[in-house]
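fyi for ur records
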Amino acid sequence: MMSTPQHNQQVAALFRAMAERLASQRANPYRVRAYRKAADTIEALEEDIADIAARQALEDLEGVGRDLADKIEEFLRTGTIQTYEALRTPLPDAVKAWAQFPGLSESLVAYLYTRLHITTLTDLERLVQSHMLRTVPGFSGSEERLLEAITASQQQPSITKP
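which gave:
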């Protein structure tokens, strides 16, 4: 059996990593599935993806539409995919710390930050006070206890503040 060409392995690995990151951010499940399906298709190819791109036949591959074809071409040109780099950007430490608050988890914090653009404790406090957090899947705590934790955190001097 012929081994998968290196470009194919690299693109498939990037697409899988993007799918995992998107899944952890609770992105549209169809989008997550699209990355996984494209990764499977690319990994199964015996022909190098660069050769397929040169023939402008990427969209002929099962599970690869215009958007994913553009990302493959970007990888072949630059060695990376900007969307992947953006997804890889870690949460700020201050935001990561919110996972310690009652009712919040790492994946929920990532979702609040990346999808709802909750970037400060004040934003989080407003979200809780609006009672909208209880509508977000994955919140499993008391809004009152969470507000108390936010208030206590705001009153502590932070060493990480510039």
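DSSP finds nine helices and no strands in the chain. thats all i got for now
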